[in-house]
């Protein structure tokens, strides 16, 4: 899932609050015996973010969204990935809520045109 989002191993480990070695073992099928509540929370948030992106953006734009500069006020002009790496769970929750709000049409500061400009490609219009 994180590979689909064009995130490197080091960044994947930081997002999940795992060591790179533990992440490598988990990817080979040797899952950690014990995960913290924080780690489960991080996994849940990342899963929600991953699922929201292809609903909002078309094709490669959904995969690249986390690694592109974002002019949204909430993200302070940063790449969403950098925002989450710097802010931990609260920032990950903010990104998840931002995308969920976009999906439901509740975020007034992001129009379909804004998303199209940010993505550089066409936006799939979702009608509720």
How does this structure look, described?
The chain has 128 residues and is an all-alpha fold. The chain is 58% helix and 0% strand. It contains six helices and no strands.
Q: Roughly how many Å apart are the termini?
A: 27 Å
Whole-angstrom Rg: 15 Å
Helix content: 55-70%
Beta-strand segment tally: 0
Biggest beta sheet attributes:
none
The chain-level structural class is: mainly alpha
Average residue pLDDT? 82
Overall shape: elongated
The low-pLDDT segments are none
> What is the beta-strand fraction?
under 5%
Distinct helical segment count: 6
Compressed to H and E, one letter per element, the order equals: HHHHHH
Fill in the keyword field for this structure.
about 130 residues; elongated; mainly alpha
Strands, helices and their partners?
Layout: H1 9-16, H2 20-27, H3 37-56, H4 60-64, H5 80-104, H6 112-119
Briefly summarize what is shown:
By secondary structure, the protein is mainly α.
